[in-house]
Amino acid sequence: MAKTVVLERKPLSLSERTYLPQIVTGLKTTFSNMFKPKVTLQYPEEKPVIPNNYRGVPTLVKDPNGREKCVSCQLCEFVCPPKAIRITPGSVPDDQEDREHVEKAPQEFEINMLRCIYCGYCQEVCPEEAIFLQDQYSSSGYSREEMVNNKQKLYELGGTLPDHHYKWDKKKEAEELGNAH
Amino acid sequence: MISPTKEELITINLNGLEVEVPNGMNAVEAAALHGHEVPHYCYHPKLSVAGNCRMCLVEMGTPMRDRATGEPILEEDGSPKIGWVPKPVIGCATNVSSGMHLRTESDLVSECREGIMEFLLVNHPLDCPICDQAGECRLQEFATDYGRGYSRYVERKNVKPKRTRLGPRVTLDDERCILCSRCIRFSQEVAKDDVLGFVDRGSFSTLTCFPGKELSNNYSLNTVDICPVGALTSTDFRFKMRVWFLKESKSICVESSAGCNTTVSSREGVIQRITPCRNDLVNDTWMTDSGREIYKTVRSEDRILRPSVKGEDQPLNETISSAVNILQENKIGLVASCHSTLEEQILTKKLADLTKAEIFLRGHFGEDDGILLSADRSPNLRGALVTGLIQEYPEDNLLALNDAITKGDVEVLLVMNEDLIKSGISEENLAKVKVVYIGTHSNSSSQNADIVLPGLSVFEKGGSFINRSFLLQSFELCIPGPVGLKSQAEVLSAIIAQLSNEECISTNLDSIWELVNSGQIDLLSSITYADLKVAPVQLDGSRWSQLNFVEKEALNYRPLAS
């Protein structure tokens, strides 16, 4: 059996016995930080600045004319890995003037935020640039139902984004400019 | 419709290999037979050849012969010299002959395909995200397989009407049409209702109905199926679901004794559409519009979803026990159904033998359209003959049963799916008897029944039917049934088991067929369900040739000579 060797503790020096140098070193760090710029945020009163291309809550956007861009092609529903998206397609009546040339639009569009993994595939696959993961990062609710974003909520969250295509306007223009038969 | 004239095989040279194909077959089919796809739009195996899409261009050549002597001209190495036609020919209108040389994969051919694809796509809208055809679109498929891959077109595309109503069930998107004329030929040749045609010229060409006519015949939705692009769309299915979500199951149309093979497309247990499935013995590639509507009955409001005793909901097992109590009495009448599957009819017959019940059966007859809607509006009347439920051809009523009740010969009725009041039973007589009803939908029988046992619809179970040509065909389960319900076969076998104090017959279809094979029905004795699932079986119906079948001569059907 190994024998326990008891080591003699070195006696403390005078400066060590007064603790003063250690206190001074600590206070130096404290005082230096008092004058440096703050690095913490007072969340939730203060919100962080979200960088561009941040993948937040998926939302539906409208074009600057206020028309919905989604045509319910269901590609996002198909590509969504956790199957969080559920779309009920529907057709747009012929006689709606502000939606001329739009044939198809979602009747209902639901994204289950309890399932969403914020991967951004839906944004990537969307042929109409209608779904975007924007700067929303916190979503909370008291029930499961509240955590399912329906079409109305998705458009509220999404708002309007600048559009480079104006697809429906182009269709209207083509018809008026003489290629119509 | 170019079909091989004789069954004799000839040798042709396909892409440098000697292969055997039936004489007179066209180059598209001959190449497909040996695994070479020749893309095509206007050619359809069941329609006449129009040759207007030019997509199936192939190179064709024949061995050269000396004009003066008729001697074959040989190359230097002694092989016959091939005279290649200087320009490509269309495969759909080129019938093979002995010694013919075909190239379907040469540089010239793929250049031709690229060119044709480019022209077809010039005025085609980029509609794929909202086009119902996307996912099963020949234009999409061939554009990726044989197209150039990019567009050189900078001019403005044509604009045409996007939702033209061609008929009550068909909507046309003019921009997408590639003018293949399949729908026109179908209307003329199969539906015999010539209402479609092209008007205007060049890029202005448009498909339209003749003035004052519309595409309203009972076969109009077949034009949607054969449309290679998304121009003709079904108004019912339009914008309902993308096709890549659909699970496809093979089924059989229950509308009439024609027994059309169908593909039932469903998503998450909800049927979205029914389309025909090719079977050259039965329906070619067609089916009726009315047959496609049948899926709507699965979720209709009058569907019976709970077993009940005297109008009160009861658990299924207790309901079956109460039914057994009633069926232990004497003077039982059994109303069998020609809508039941063959397996259910076999069990019905077994139950009838067990209870010494008298069997009644009603036929359902209507107009014969000479194509795929036969006069017998039930899928399995031949099954009732084969299983021995009936010996005589049934009437379109149950007056015999009415008389039997009046005389007091029948006091308890077990009804399979039949509406008694509409079949000629008087209300007074119906009140006299105790009724056990097994069926899917509510009708006068279920409303007056003491015991109601719900069953599953044809889409929610497997089984088999015998069609008008005595062709035994099986169908598979497409969607799960409503919660807690069992198939008619399971309900019947539970009743049989309790009545005979034996163990329940396994309701696995294979074991029902083992029961069949054990000998009672000689026509079916050598058939197993496993075989039947692979291919339909032709039965010999000659012993019933003296019966007066109501069906008239129709597509792929000739009445038995009497």
What's a concise summary of this model?
The complex is a heterodimer of chains A (181) and B (562). Chain A is of the alpha+beta class.
Describe this structure in words.
- The complex is a heterodimer of chains A (181) and B (562).
- By secondary structure, chain A is α+β, with helices and mostly antiparallel strands.
- Chain A has a domain at 58-162: Alpha-Beta Plaits (2-Layer Sandwich), CATH 3.30.70.
- Helix content of chain A is 29%, strand content 13%.
- The N and C termini of chain A lie far apart (104 Å).
- The model of chain A has no long low-confidence stretch (mean pLDDT 90).
- With 562 residues, chain B is of the alpha+beta class.
- Chain B has 3 domains: 9-105, Ubiquitin-like (UB roll); 125-297, Alpha-Beta Plaits (2-Layer Sandwich), CATH 3.30.70.20; 308-544, Rossmann fold, CATH 3.40.50.740.
- Chain B contains 15 helices and 24 strands.
- Chain B has helices spanning 27-33, 107-122, 138-146, 182-189, 221-226, 289-292, 316-327, 342-355, 381-386, 399-407, 427-432, 444-447, 488-500, 509-520, 529-534; strands at residues 9-14, 17-22, 57-63, 82-84, 89-90, 101-103, 164-165, 170-172, 196-199, 206-209, 232-234, 247-252, 261-267, 270-276, 308-309, 312-313, 332-336, 358-361, 412-416, 434-439, 451-454, 463-466, 471-475, 537-538.
- In chain B, strands 16-15-21-20-19-17-18 form a 7-stranded mixed β-sheet. In chain B, strands 1, 2, 3, 4, 5 and 6 form a 6-stranded mixed β-sheet that branches.
- In chain B, strand 22 and strand 23 form a beta hairpin.
- The mean pLDDT of chain B is 92.
- Chain A binds chain B through residues 71-75, 77-78, 89-91, 94, 101, 103-104, 127-128, 171, 174-175, 177, 179-181, and chain B through 128-130, 134, 156-163, 174, 200, 204, 206, 238-242, 244-245.
